[in-house]
Each structure stands twice: as C-alpha cells, then as structure tokens.
Amino acid sequence: MAKQSIVTLSDGVNILVRLLGESEDRTKPLLIVLHGGPGLSSHVEPENSFGFLASRFRVLVYDARGSGVSDSKPPLTDERWIADLEELRQWAGEEKFILAGGSYGGSLGIGYTLTHPEHVTALILRDTWANGFRGTLRVMDTIARSTEITTDRAQQLRLWSGTLRDNADFEKSVADILPIYTAKRQGVVPGSGDRAFENVKTPYQYHFETHNAAFSYNEPRLDVRSRLREIKVPTLVIVGRHDPVTPVEDAQEIHAGIDGSVLAIFENSGHSPPSEEPELFQKTLWDFLNKL
C-alpha cells in the first residue's frame, strides 16, 4: 500500500512523494530514503531497495527536484536538495526520523545530517563517498582501464564532468557504462547477484541539466571528510566489494570518520547490494534497525 502526493515546496516547486505502508499510522517511525543519480534516478530505486521496511516504518521516497517527474526549477545544488528534504520532513509531520541514501543520495544524507543533526536519529549510507572531486576522477580512471566500455571516452568525460550535450548524449553515456556497475559483469562468482537488476523496474527519466549541475558544480565542491566526526547518530555504512564507482576505500573512510558506525561490505556486489544480494541486504538493515 502506498500513498502518492504532489507536495508544493516554498518556492513553488512540485515534488512527487510516496509514503509506503500504512502511511497514516503515526505510531510507526518515519524513514526517508534518498535516491541517487540526479537527473536519472527517481523514487523507484529507493522504493525497490527499502520498501520491505514498510511493515515497521513509514517509508517516504520521492523524486528529487530535477529528477523523475518533479519540477526542475533551479538552483540544482546540494544545498537546495538538502533544504527540500527539510521541507518534506516538515510536511511529513515528524520532528525526528531515520535517514537513508544510496550513491549520490548518500552524500546528500551526510550533508543533511551535518546541517540538521537535531532531526536525524540514525543514518544509513549505501555506496557513497565523502569527497566528490576525488571520486569522479577515480571513476574516470576506472573507465579508462575497463575493457568493457566501448563508448567514445570523450562521451564518458562529458558524463562525469557534467558537460553532457543533451538527453540523447546522457542516455547513450549511461547505457554504455552500465556493464561495469555489477559484480557479475566483472567476472566475480556472484551469490544472489545472479539476480542483479532482474525484474527491477527502473524507468530512467533523463534530465541532463540536472546531472550537469550535480557533476560540474556540486561534486567538485563536495568534501565533508573533516566533518564526519560531527555525526553522532548510529550509522550503517554499506558498500559492494566490487563497486567501481564508490569503492570500499570510500566506505572505510566514512566508517573511520563516524565514531561507532557499522561497516557492511557485500562480497558479491558492485554498486547495488540491494539488487545483487537482496536477502543479505535486508538482513543487514534489520539487524541494524533492531538495535536502535
């Protein structure tokens, strides 16, 4: 069961929001999950990954400004996306909540927790980084070394530098890079990774301007490594052993920076443990949440 709403923010932007489970049951704690890939991903990704928690939580997922079917009014900055999340918390009517985010959504989760620590009771970070400039350079190095990427290297440079020409350029760049994302495609013998992305509906909606803003402006300025120690809430850091985008060393860096955090490395996953090792992912989340 899910309740879908269009929420109008203070600057007039309309955001698609979905509350999963018994959305009116205020006895359940609120869990907000942020999607990755600005301008590409949508609420579908976190709904697929975290929807199983709706039995015990009010799970809120949404299309961020400039993604999915939500409005694309600028500024498309991390600061604005964090402010949007704060408005949605107020709309949901909860003073405190659990925050989760994957990939780009994970770095926004860190940013929100540093900006509004009084509202976050626990933090779940999946396959993310704390330094965007180093991260994007490392991805380009991975692409340069890969034998599976057959696209024009200049096209991948446009993708990761945020200089895409149009949506067609965006779509082709994403299609060409997908082979490196899963452990299965890297010659690893997967466990449940055999089902990676199978039967998971992720209708990409391309907004190249949003992606360009994220990777030309936001990511080069992202460096919260020195502030990780300020995060005092229980934190779970998840990463796929074979993630070429946000590798294990990034997760280890976040884990080392957040005192008392839990690090979970998924040995048969790439960038998406929820779809590559779903049973273990769900067990890991329940183990963490049951201790709160």
Automatic annotation (TrEMBL):
Gene Ontology terms, cellular component aspect? membrane
In terms of InterPro entries, this protein maps to:
AB_hydrolase_1, AB_hydrolase_fold, AB_hydrolase_sf, Peptidase_S33
Q: Which GO terms describe its biological process?
A: proteolysis
Its domain of life reads: Eukaryota
**Which residue numbers delimit the AB hydrolase-1 domain?**
29-277
Gene Ontology molecular function, alphabetical = peptidase activity
Q: Name one Pfam family in it.
A: Abhydrolase_1
> What transmembrane ranges does the database entry give?
none
Print the keywords alphabetically: Hydrolase
Regarding protein family, the annotation reads: Belongs to the peptidase S33 family.
The entry's protein name is Proline iminopeptidase
Q: What is this organism's lineage?
A: Eukaryota, Fungi, Dikarya, Ascomycota, Pezizomycotina
